[in-house]
Design a protein that fits this description.
There is one protein chain. The chain has about 140 residues and is an alpha+beta fold. It contains four helices and four strands. Strands 2-1-3-4 form a four-stranded mixed β-sheet, with helices on both faces. The longest helix has 19 residues, at about 95-115.
Amino acid sequence: MKKEEKIVLLFDGDCNFCNATVNFILLRDRHDRFRFGALQSDIGKKLLEEYHLPGDNNSIVVISNAKVYQQSSAILIITRNLSGAWSILYVFVIIPPFIRNALYRWFASNRYKWFGKTEHCMIPDENSKNKFLSEH
């Protein structure tokens, strides 16, 4: 049996909403599928470069099975892999990407105004430290 590859989620470590979303996912990742890294971190920058994405990326990035997903497609991959009824939200894949992504970009452009920014990336607690990517 092939070992299941982890899903890498790169998020804006300065964004309060994004940090809250990571905590939300941590609580619903009962199958240990996700690994996290801030876009601003060294490992985040390295992965952006490796996948030929801009360094000033303003989107959540999901890397799953060597494929990159951004914006609404990244959100759908996340929901599909969460424990519980959250996977039902994957049904929104039927909405054309240009509509989903327009909504995503509108929300993303307002997230700092609505939820604020933090001066530093989140620091994982001892229970979830192994879910965050590091260079070591």
